[in-house]
Amino acid sequence: RQGALRVVMQRWLLLRRLVMGLRQSSWVGTLQMLYANGINLARASVLAAKVTEGTALYDGLMRASKSYEATGIPFAEAIRRNTDLDPQVIHMIGIGEKSASLPQQLELLRDIYEEDTAAYMADFTEVINFITLAVAVFLIGLVFSGAMLPIFLMGPKMMNAGS
User: Fold this and answer.
1) What is the DSSP string of 80-118?
2) How many Å apart are CA 159 and CA 142, to the nearest integer?
3) What is the pLDDT of residues 23-76, one digit of tens each?
């Protein structure tokens, strides 16, 4: 399932943006909630990474969390080195770390991703609705032609048989 999703995501930009937006939104939202409630950043990042378990982001986020905890490099730098997150996420986390406003930056980032993901979801829904409509029209046309074609082909034979 993940392999098929990965292949389709490589070919369809809208689906890639939608899926990555959902994954990053859930990770950022979980990280923000944990960190804002007093859990230290190293532990919060490990717990937030578990939200993405089973996806391509999981391994990179776990490596970034362990790297941050073990080496003491800034969290934004650990994420930049180990994950494929959007540069916007890394930049906002870096700003939050430097200005000691990480919970506010994460909340802002979560809100941005929720809005973007809602827009991608609306676009995706429109595309799927159009594809569904096109398939339905094709199937109805196929059934109609399958039912009417024998009648049209029998007409000349019946006319010739009558004379």
Assistant:
1) HHH----HHHHHHHHHHHHHT-HHHHHHHHHHHHHHHHH
2) 26
3) 889 999 999 999 999 999 999 999 999 999 988 889 999 999 999 999 989 999
SS3 at position 40: coil
Residue pair 80/106 in contact (Cβ under 8 Å)? The answer is no
Q: Are 14 and 35 in contact (CB under 8 A)?
A: no
Q: Tokens 């939200």, residue?
A: 51
Give the CA count within 13 Å in the CB-facing half-sphere of 16.
Answer: 11
Written as six digits, the tokens of 67 are 């790297």
Query: What is d(CA 20, CA 39) in angstroms, rounded to the nearest whole number?
Result: 25
Q: How far apart are CA 56 and CA 45, in angstroms?
A: 16
Q: CA-CA distance, 55 to 44, in Å (whole number)?
A: 19
Total-model pTM = 0.76
